[in-house]
Amino acid sequence: MAHKSYLTRLGVYGFETVEPVILAALVTEDPLLLIGRSGTGKTFLLNSLSEALELEHRHYNASMISFDDLVGFPYPDADNTAVKFLETPATVWQAESVLIDEISRCKPEHQNRLFSLVHERKLQGISLTKLRFRWAAMNPCEPEDSAETYTGSEPLDPALADRFALFANAGEWGELSVADRRAVADPAGEGSFSNDRGDLKTHLAEWRVRFLAQLEACPSLILDYSALVVTHLNTASIRVSPRRARLLSRSLLAASIVTGKSADKQFLQVLESSLPHGAWGAPPTREKVKAAHRAAWDEVQRSPNAWVHQFLSLPKVSDRLALWLESCRDPDQGTQAVAQLLASAPKELAAVFAFAVFPKAVEGKLPIGAEGVNDLAKVAGPILRYEGTLKWSEPANQTPSPQRDFARYATVLSGLSGARAERANQFFGWCVLEHVVLVKPEAVEEQLEACVNLLRSR
Q: Is residue 402 very low, low, confident or very high in pLDDT (cuts 50, 70, 90)?
């Protein structure tokens, strides 16, 4: 990632490589299962996420749980016509997030009762209306002759495992950097509250809005890839359920929103993290999974809309604009590509693209249809209408607000002049008004300038 990882800022280490997968699970709100050896921070990670997101959280140890712990004590209502439950602080009814720890040590009858909670957000047929996140953790399914066997930890029932959308493996000590090892060893962090000043919560809300908007028009790259790769996996005798294809598409969409790209390696990582087989003790060989991925990815790249797929996979909006100007000749394809960029790119980069491109699009000098011009207008209009000068007026000791970023914007603006400064001032002013937080304002301004330079000759 371009900045310090969200998880590291929460004091969680060993999950950086799978962070896009974990963040994608937060965006989709589909069930997530962490798998790892004892002491690798699985429980700490999930409890830290609940703290950072300020959730009403429940943490259950599945090896010791009783059903009454979940639902409370049943009693008849006043008319003796229905059963209610006497709630306690531990019951699940008011929970926004639930962690089922040690799920692989759970008795079969309790696994069956937890099935509907994981799959449907229901217990006893009653909807858990406040529940958003369903998380679980387990030790790996190790053969009996392995160096570290977890007695009592059994493979999950395949039907239950298939209800989890994503599976993330916890990193071992050898995978940590020297700095992370020192941070893990530091006893000062014991018992501290995970607080990133609301950064993850703010970004998650933005990602979730974009995710829900794109569900109605999922990018063809994702749909084509999911359909193809599930076919190739099943052909290779790696059974993947039809339900899994939809979960894979949701996870790929969320990961592309979180990272701002749709790249080859990212698709492979999400695919590997979407396969439930390891949770029931029958993981497919990585070579077979990689072969299925490569076949699907290559087929997608050879499709008639291959340039659109490539367009969406580039990390910089200036690179996407260059490809669009160079390769697109069909206004309908240009409209499709722009619509997907505006929906999938981070808000600030989508705004950079629209702000730079809209004037030329209105003049009819770009390969885009009328609908695409209207899409650009919706994003660029508020920026183009902004007039004024950014001023810092808050006392230094006041509660932080989006305007705390103006000092960083001012540093960038001080080095600019002429039309470039005017554009940047206009854009940053819009960011303040819209509460758009720029991690690196200088990088955003560079992207804006690169796009403007590409369009000058049109």
A: very low
